Fold this sequence. Notes:
Elements: E1 2-4, H1 8-17, E2 32-33, H2 40-50, H3 60-85, E3 88-89, E4 96-99, E5 102-103, E6 106-107, E7 110-113, E8 118-120, H4 126-149, H5 157-175, H6 182-198, E9 220-222, E10 225-229
Antiparallel strand pairs: 1-8, 2-4, 3-8, 4-7, 5-6, 9-10
Helix pairs in contact: 3-4, 3-5
Amino acid sequence: MMTLVLSQNDIHTLTNDYRMTVEPSEDREWSLPVMDLLDPEKSRMYMERVAPIFRTSLSTASVSMFVKRYGFLTAAPVLYAMSLLNKGLDCSVANSHLESFHKGDTWLPKLRLSDAAVSQPEEGKREEWRDWIIERLFADNISKVLRSLMKLVPVSSAVLWENAAIYIFWLYEKRMGEGATAEQKARMEEDFRYLVQEAPARLFGEARHNPLTRFYTEKRRTKAHEDPFRIRKTCCYYYQTTPGEESFCGGCPKVKHEFV
Length: 260
């Protein structure tokens, strides 16, 4: 692999559109090195501080809502850089920091890397290079964080993996193709197909199955939605963070969908 640095244009795109930052946040209460999420006591203390953001205490719902944000902030810049820029970021836990930011009443944490050097594949070796990036992102980061948080509350790995999966699908299907060249779109489509259909379980820190594959289902059209969409396999517990409202996500399996 060849080692490079991010260009100013790359940094501008990643920091403005893909939840990355190059500066530590001044808000140290809700910012931390990702390694702290693997420590039982530190992760519990942090999640107890974060839970009120989701209008709840430390619970299955607050952990689920946190993982939605965490999965997106880690996957978005790494997968955009890999597929659109053909550049690799090291998102291993030891190299990653969660930096806390607010936009109005919305909490929008971002990813900061201690070492933001990037790699590029050598000629004819992109598949091996891609595996290295995916493994750093999933097996050495997201999977470890999910397993640690699962020890705090009773929540299944399926719920947490689907929380990450839905945003990965959205990135590739809706977001990253905007303004992409034909070459970039072809690379993006190939990477997405590999991620959801072919990548081996070990790259995700799993023993038997690629955890994204089971959630990559056909989109369905319903009477309530003009555009087809995927119905989730699991409920993310969002409704438990809306007391008195019981608002459900559009694709929630608890909702009775009328298909057309």
